[in-house]
Amino acid sequence: MNNTYLPYFDGFRGIAIMLVILGHLGFGNFIPGGFGVTLFFFISGFLITRLLIFEYHKNQTIDIKKFYVRRLLRLYPALLTMIAVTSALIFLTCSNASVKPYIFSGIFYYTNYYISFFRSAAPLDCERVFDALWSLAVEEHFYLFFPFIFLFFNKNTRHLISILILIAILSLLIRLFILMFNNDFNQSSLIIYHSTHTRVDSIIYGCLSAILIYKQNSKTYMGILNNKLTVFIGVALILISLLYRDPLFRESIRYSIQGLALMLLLPGPMFYPSDSLLKKLIESPALIFIGKLSYSLYLFNGLCIMMMNEYFQENFFEGVHSAKWMAATISLTIIFSLTSYYLVEKPFVHIRKQFGSNVL
Known about the structure:
Keywords: Membrane, Transmembrane, Transmembrane helix. By secondary structure, the chain is mainly alpha-helical. The chain contains 18 helices and no strands. It has one domain (7-352).
């Protein structure tokens, strides 16, 4: 087993971040920005599980300390930069904003619970810049428990798979429970969309997929992935999850359907021949580069939206904006992201490699 870099997943990260940003730019009624986040979750689960499988195969153990050091070196430099820059700009342009709770919740990864349970019902537009950090909190909470589950159940793959399936089912049941017993649907929707205990299954499906491929060596799963009918079913499930607009469905079963669909669709093309048209598209240099920038793009897009809203006096995340606003926001997001990637993220790559990272 060799824990080599997979450009394929950077290509999908590129697709995911474009969905998210287009949703933020006002195309949410046409572009499934939320599905982009779900795609990020699946990819994270797959890659982290793959890394742990290969590390255990090589060393017969998991170095938990190195795992967390790698995560901190990957996430914190750009995150702290974003929080510092955003806080400074909000202080200069939005003096009545209450920034301190967002700073603490961002640094300590509880933004998802802060915006679901503790902040005011009508936050200022400039405060909502920090909202994107909710998904980082979900992933970080997953990182806190998953290495221990993997290490404890690793020697019995069936038990490991069973535990992960149980977590995914519990996540769905909790969503249903919230919808049944909370009479405020808007609050229920907010909690379900952002909370770790209601969204972690989107990561778990990626974990299961990696285990079936690299640990279980499941010929059955690989056969399913290579079946054309599987592609049809997977695409159909994605379309159903996006087009069926019933509110109760969207806040409950939708995420489970999307996770199962991604298990059917996402890993398959990774094993296609290198001259496959689909694989060439996914691994195109442009998509891979966007994928490498995706973390910084995700962090700074909200800030750039806020800045252009101030400049053009347009509403935050509401409707489709003017062409000038769109061009300026995209350009500024790219500038901030490139700066963050080359001046903040890249300098830590060498250090991360010392702790077992395979990043390029």
